[in-house]
Amino acid sequence: MLLDVERENRAILAKEAHLVADDAGFDCARQNVSVTQARPLPADLVTPCLVVDRDVLERNLVAMAARVRDRNVALRPHAKTHKTVEIARRQLALGAAGLTVATVGEAEVFVDAGFSDLFIAYPLWAAGERGRRLRALAERVALRVGADSNEGMELLARALVGTPAEVVVEVDSGHHRTGVQPERAGEVAVVAQRLGLPVAGVFTFPGHSYGPGQIRPAAADEGDALQRAATALRRAGVDAGLRSGGSTPTAALVEPAGLNEIRPGVYVFNDAQQVEIGSANWDSVALTAAATVVSRHGSSVVLDAGGKVLGADRAAWATGNGRLPDHPESRVTALSEHHATVAFPADAVLPELGSTVRVAPNHVCAAANLADVLVVIANGAVVDQWAVAARGRNA
Q1: Average pLDDT of the chain, as a whole number
Q2: pTM to 2 decimal places
């Protein structure tokens, strides 16, 4: 059972608001500040493993739930980050409207676990067996599915017409990955309706918020694109009010005038990327890899948590392949399958051989997808283990 730390929420929100307020530049001094006090790891951990600090996780969950409640915006968190039933249940208990997932496979896992309201926020190509699986889901739960083309809508119609499932038109708000231009949202929505598919509204992902100094501009782009897309739907005669957006970096800047639902995922754990772009600090990083120092040479150490534990994601602007929250001046400079090389300043005191250190992955979603279980700790002791139930459900 997660701890109830609602009393700490206001202080956390104030801290997060401060972080976002000065996101116009990359603050190296801020992101190099370690945690206030290193949180102890249990002495008997078998490394490498992914460890979740239960109290930090709970603070993150409560803070986001309070933020959206205060701004009258629905929260539909993206479960692709944690992929665990226990965290998803806590998110709903704190008021989430439902879950977001990325794949049919993830949806199947959460439906089997009893969740009844899901949004597959992806332009699914619902051909063949995937279409049949999608229909089976739609006959069991409240389901929304994304699309960004007339052709995609035609496949969704074959799979879903006759079920209560709704479609949501994806628009591009600046990330330039998927989605139609906002002004074209009405055209795609009209096609969906002509095919017999109910249209819930529009959605976007402001993925260009992932970069130093990009949070505030991306949040503005997001709200503007959703408003323009909603206008396009109205002009096309489509009565559909959902304006769904949101990423962890832009969540602190959400305004109900632009959107009425957000789908952040990383906020539950946070990671090295979130710290480096200024949307989190080390005290809010709930998931780290516990790793053992297996070698020391000069001013570097080697850990037993490589790319098969941490994931290999590294953005062009990232300062390392992962970070050590308790040694923020260090950098993971190289990853191989089972090794992480960590460089320290020449005058730094290195961790001892055989000691255990915490490593924050660059991209926590990728790291979680590599683990069978998350080891849950509180006050320096293991208190639970949670299966990563949707691990590998990528289709």
Answers
A1: 92
A2: 0.91
